Amino acid sequence: MSIRNALRADADAIHGLIAAHVGDGTLLPRSVAEIRRDIRDFVVAEKAGEVVGCGALHVYGPRLTEIRSITVRQDHVRRGLGRSIVRALLRRARGRDVCLFTRAPAFFAAFGFQVIDRKRVPEKFYKDCRLCPRRHACDETAMAIGELALPLHREARELEVQAR
After folding, report:
1. Where are the beta strands (DSSP E) in 103-161?
2. Tens-digit pLDDT string for the chain (164 aa)
3. What is the β-pairing status of strands 97-102 and 114-115?
4. Which H or E element spans position 155?
5. At the fourth CATH level, which superfamily is domain 2-163?
6. 81 contacts: CB under 8 Å, gap ≥ 6
7. What does the DSSP 8-state code read for residue 90?
């Protein structure tokens, strides 16, 4: 079993892994074209030449990234692949803040992620949330590592409230 950078040739397999979890709302849909366009964001878990898991690190800018589209094929769950994928993506983040939205906060807390107010990552809203059918009743927990996860000082919190 190995974790490696995804190749364009992996796009169909990545699409299949993600599509398996779109119907229940666990993952947002990604088209094959979108996956191919963003292939450098992805890593894959491979066993015997077959892609059995994936995850992506989307870069919003010099300070912020997002872990997304983490999934492992059902017949390979509970073998540490998800953890290996997350570790590989965290290495890629190279000191940037990392955010994510999840229904499995305990899994990500084990890596040091902290729950944050989703309003602290407007980049996520403009990229994905505004298009999500659950945007008005989101059941995912926003989490982060880095400065984004630090509590806001009182003055900064007041400024943030005033800016809304």
Report:
1. 114-115, 141-145
2. 899 999 999 999 999 999 999 888 788 889 999 999 999 999 999 999 999 999 999 998 899 999 999 999 988 889 899 999 999 999 999 889 999 999 899 999 999 999 998 888 867 665 666 666 666 667 788 899 988 888 765 445 555 555 55
3. unpaired
4. helix 154-163
5. Gcn5-related N-acetyltransferase (GNAT) (3.40.630.30)
6. 1, 45, 52, 53, 72
7. H
